[in-house]
Amino acid sequence: SCDVVVLTTLFGDLDSVTPYDENQLLALSESEELSGNKSCWFAFVDSVQEQIALNGTNVTVNEDQSSFNKVGVWNLVVLGPEKLPFSEEEMAQNSRVPKMLGHLGFEFATYMVYLD
Hints:
This protein has 116 residues and is an alpha/beta fold.
């Protein structure tokens, strides 16, 4: 279980998931150890962004679908158009849904940080 949930949303091809380097991951690990808090990272993406992410570096693909595909520390949560309240032309509004409702999906977390 996580004390701190970090989440972001990426829809379309304007940006991509950042796979943090070894020094950043080491600093994160040291911070977690010092604070006693564990963090979990989630990137809510559409199918376009999923393909961009999976073709990048530091990717862990879970073939059996028992957990999330990962890019570095980021767990990829793919949201198809049927799971989004607005049309594909309104991606800016869709990207706000996980931000505004994240507390419902991550009730267990003490803190939630949204990276824009």
